[in-house]
Amino acid sequence: MTTSTRRPGGSASGGAAERAAPAPAAAAPARGGKAGRASRTGYRCAECGWVTARWLGRCGECQQWGTLEEVGGAPVGVTAARTVAVPALPIADVEARAAQTWATGVGELDRVLGGGVVSGAVVLLAGEPGVGKSTLLLDVASRAAATGRTVLYITGEESAAQVRLRAERIGALDPRLLLAAETDLATVLGHVEATSPDLLIVDSVQTVASDSVDGTAGNVTQVREVAASLIRVAKGRGMATLLVGHVTKDGSIAGPRVLEHLVDVVCQFEGDRHSRLRLLRAVKNRYGPTDEVGCFDLTETGIVGMADPSGLFLSRHEVPVPGTAVTVTLEGRRPLVAEVQALVARSALANPRRATSGLEASRVAMVLAVLERRVGVSLAGLDTYAATVGGVKLGEPSADLAVALAVAGSHVDRPLLAGLVVIGEVGLAGEVRKVTGVARRLAEASRLGFTRAIVPSGCEEGAPPGMKVLPVGDLRSALTAGLPPDTRQMTDP
Question: Of 312, 477, 466, which Cα lies nearest the Cα of 393?
Answer without folding.
Answer: 312
